[in-house]
Amino acid sequence: MIVKERRYELDNHELILRSPRKEDAKVLVDYLLNVSAETPYLLNEPEDVAGMTIEGEEKWIDRCNTEERGCVIVAYYDGEYAGNCCITENRKMRLLHRGGVGIALYQKYCGLGIGKLMMQMLFDTAKEIGLEQLELEVIAGNDRALSLYKKFGFVEYGRFPNNMKYKDGTYADAIWMMAKVQ
After folding, report:
1. What is the pTM of this model?
2. CA-CA distance, 135 to 182, in Å (whole number)?
């Protein structure tokens, strides 16, 4: 689904939230490589995304923009790519009321209010397409993300112990959360 572009001013900086375009493909590939290296809270290690290509990302953008009940939203802050968020659609009839949420920003853009605006846009889009609840998985210890999610009504409904294993042999639990779309 293609979402309507939104523009915001954040402390004299311009934030643009919109659906990705084919010309974003290289930026998205670079982003995945870099953001996976800078935070332990995402599923990917840089090696997991090292084989991504611009052509593959262009195809992914086309698929995302043609989904009926899902979307991807990219964020540009003063013209620089800051991150993205998404609603992943369910295709099974019994799950059509649910949507999965993903959100990630480069660390330097965290704490500026971008995540809050992205999350609001996800909720607005979810309501527009008729979703009743949004769900996500967040890694325990990601306190900034947990705080944001709770502000939007997400509540914990379960934990997955040792969900991720890092290169150094340590583990991280995942917290499953859900919010009703009002």
Report:
1. 0.94
2. 14
